[in-house]
């Protein structure tokens, strides 16, 4: 069991009021709140250690470099990866773009995504296909939000050069059978990129055993700062992936005739990185490590189950992917009401939910809806908050009918 009161006390923002009511933050899929451990690490860095990293000989620069590179080790430990396979990026979107622009695929190659992807895992591939006479295909979903995994094999041709799928749907919370997808891909000799943006916050991440080729996530969805993320790639890709961004910090020697780049992750980290963000991410992972991802996953599943049961008691509510093989995310609509109106009314009660298409317009098209209301939970949410939410939702439904 996690100590929920202690955890809540670790997040200063949770004591805020919104419209005179205690904040109930159910928009964790968009971004999570930050614990004091993360805020303090950033304040300490700027108060005591701020300097540019990697090439300074003075004390502050050496200290900042050590912090930055220790952070890489912390991220490696947390994700069961090797630190020399971890590249710091600006986030999930950035990581996917680095791969899409670096794979150097032959003209006419085909890429497979899924119908539930976030736009960030569609558009970089779509751009590539438009510019290189490629074809973008997708694994369709069933109405319960799960992938039609049997269709995957029928989509694969000799031109399929990558499968890029999300581990957890940001809109539905559905957990995809990544192991099975990777098995099929490997059998056909196709590399796999896994979008872990919504998985890392909710479950244990084990990159060594996952068997993917690329894995991306954003720090801000794991209790850490915005504007930083991680691209993990299997070692074999480090020398193969072409550079799409170049600049200071990535080189061994530069001359106007020829530049030699370093090996390893730094090759993909041009310019001054988001040092505070990386330090914040390490602080977040240390904090999560102390609590334990298994315990967090268990608590969040209890929240998911309880909220699903409560919402299913309301005849006006329709849940998409109405089952429990999910991370703690529930997308729903109130029949006859626009999701924006539901979200605006809930805000009056201090409840933050996300409304709209959640950057998954193809998924919205599948359900033939403009958007949903999404309640996404985190480790600091409680059953009491869900009760408040259900009560506020019932009042909102009355107002809207
Ligand atoms: C599954 C998924 N992929 C990609 C992204 C994009 O993440 P970022 O905006 O941090 O780059 C998100 C953000 O919501 C997401 O949920």
What is this structure's SSE topology?
Layout: H1 4-9, E1 17-18, E2 21-22, E3 24-25, H2 36-49, H3 59-79, E4 86-89, H4 92-102, E5 110-114, H5 123-131, E6 135-139, H6 149-155, E7 160-166, H7 178-187, E8 192-195, H8 207-210, E9 214-218, E10 229-233, E11 251-254, E12 259-261, H9 275-291, H10 293-312, E13 317-320, E14 329-334, H11 339-348, E15 351-352, E16 354-356, H12 361-367, E17 372-376, H13 383-400
Parallel strand pairs: 3-15, 5-6, 5-7, 7-8, 8-9
Antiparallel strand pairs: 1-2, 4-10, 9-10, 11-12, 13-14, 14-17, 16-17
This protein binds pyridoxal-5'-phosphate.
DSSP helical segment count: 13
Average pLDDT metric: 97
- What are the low-pLDDT stretches, counting only 5+ consecutive residues below 50? none
Overall domain count: 2
Which structural class do you get from the secondary structure elements? alpha/beta
CATH architecture assignment name of the largest domain: 3-Layer(aba) Sandwich
Q: So what's the CATH class of the largest domain?
A: Alpha Beta
How many extended strands? 17
- Radius of gyration, in Å, reads 22 Å
Strand order of the largest sheet: 4-10-9-8-7-5-6
Task: Give the distance, in angstroms, between the N- and C-terminal Cα atoms.
Answer: 40 Å
β-strand amount: 15-25%
CA-based shape: globular
Helix proportion of residues, in percent?
25-40%
């Amino acid at each position: 069991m996690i100590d929920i009161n202690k955890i809540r006390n670790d997040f200063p923002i949770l004591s805020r009021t919104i419209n005179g009511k205690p904040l109930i933050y159910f928009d964790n899929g968009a971004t999570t709140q930050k614990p004091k451990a993360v805020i303090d690490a950033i304040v300490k860095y700027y108060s005591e250690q701020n300097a540019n990293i990697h090439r300074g000989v003075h004390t502050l620069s050496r200290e900042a470099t050590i912090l930055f590179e220790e952070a890489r080790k912390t991220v490696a430990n947390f994700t069961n990866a090797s630190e020399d396979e971890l590249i710091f990026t600006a986030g999930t979107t950035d990581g996917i773009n680095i791969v899409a622009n670096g794979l150097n695929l032959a003209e006419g190659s085909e890429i497979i995504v899924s119908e539930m992807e976030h736009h960030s895992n569609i558009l970089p591939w779509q751009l590539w296909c438009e510019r290189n006479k490629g074809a973008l295909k997708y694994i369709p979903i069933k109405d319960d939000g799960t992938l039609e995994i049997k269709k995957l094999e029928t989509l694969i041709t000799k031109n399929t050069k990558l499968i890029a799928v999300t581990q957890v749907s940001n809109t539905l919370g559905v957990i995809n059978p990544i192991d099975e997808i990777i098995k099929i891909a490997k059998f056909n000799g196709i590399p796999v990129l896994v979008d872990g943006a919504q998985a890392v916050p909710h479950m244990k991440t084990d990159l060594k055993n996952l068997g993917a080729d690329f894995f991306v996530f954003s720090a801000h969805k794991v209790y850490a700062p915005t504007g930083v993320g991680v691209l993990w790639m299997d070692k074999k890709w480090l020398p193969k992936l072409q550079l799409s961004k170049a600049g200071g910090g990535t080189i061994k020697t530069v001359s106007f005739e020829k530049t030699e780049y370093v090996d390893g992750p730094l090759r993909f980290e041009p310019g001054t990185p988001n040092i505070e963000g990386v330090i914040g991410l390490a602080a977040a992972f240390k904090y999560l490590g102390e609590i334990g991802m298994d315990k967090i996953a268990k608590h969040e599943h209890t929240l998911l189950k309880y909220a699903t049961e409560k919402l299913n008691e309301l005849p006006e509510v329709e849940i998409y992917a109405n089952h429990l093989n999910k991370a703690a995310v529930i997308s729903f609509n109130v029949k006859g009401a626009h999701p924006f109106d539901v979200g605006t009314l809930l805000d009056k009660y201090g409840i933050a939910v996300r409304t709209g298409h959640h950057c998954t317009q193809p998924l919205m098209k599948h359900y033939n809806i403009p958007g949903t209301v999404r309640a996404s939970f985190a480790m600091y949410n409680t059953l009491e908050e869900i009760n408040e939410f259900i009560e506020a939702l019932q009042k909102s439904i009355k107002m809207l009918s």
